[in-house]
Amino acid sequence: MRALIGFDRGVSSLWAAVIPHNALFDAIFSFFSLLGGSIYFWLIIVAVLFIFEEVRNHWFIIHFIFAFGSATLLTNEVLKNMVGRTRPFLEYGMQQKFCPSDFSFPSGHATSAFAAATILSAYDKKRAWIYYAGAVLISYSRIYLYCHYLLDVVAGALIGYLISSLVLKISFVKKKKVR
User: Which residues cross the membrane (predicted)?
Assistant: First the structure.
């Protein structure tokens, strides 16, 4: 286990250093980090899709709320407290205003971003690349800002994707049986 944690720390430091840390990139990734942590950002996207009827099947709202909510609760209320991993900026003795001081593993931002991207992409295929690109930028921002290690983000992304996929699979199976 120590080897895995050491590997994760090393790889995360490399990933955080891929893009130089300066005022411009700090502002860009802080913006994505703040967006990704806000349910309001994702609800605005859902509202726009609903209002402009970009997505005609309005079940996507129920699927979105259920998948986003359950993935976020599982990550932030259960798994983080079970694992109890310290955030990188705390371990490195850094000051960081964009990171909470709770536990690190798994990333709640990555979980919610990939849960949202998966549901939205299932119902709005022509913009799927935008949703997933946003989820990747939000997730990377957490590594860049030293809020998370790489494996925190990967685990969060997998949890968000898998829970949303399960919600979609269950709902589509039910619809097929009803018909």
Answer: 28-52, 58-79, 129-147, 153-172
Measured at the CA of 17, the angle between CA 13 and CA 18, to 5 degrees, comes to 120
Alpha-carbon span 115 to 72, nearest angstrom: 9
Domain presence at residue 16: no
Percentage with pLDDT > 90 across the chain: 24
Q: Examine the pLDDT at 178 and tell me if it is beyond 50.
A: no
Mean pLDDT of the chain: 82
Q: Would you state the pLDDT for residue 90? A: 74
> How many domains does the chain contain in total?
1
Q: Which two tokens stand for residue 11?
A: 């790889």
CA–CA gap between residue 83 and residue 61 (Å, rounded): 31
For residue 85, pLDDT beyond 90 = no
* Termini Cα distance of the chain: 50
- Tokens describing residue 95: 């000051």
In sequence order, the 6+-apart residues with CB closer than 8 A to the CB of 82 are none
Query: Of the candidates 153, 178, 169, which has an alpha carbon nearest to the alpha carbon of residue 119?
Result: 169
73 lies in some domain: yes
Residue 4 lies in a domain: no
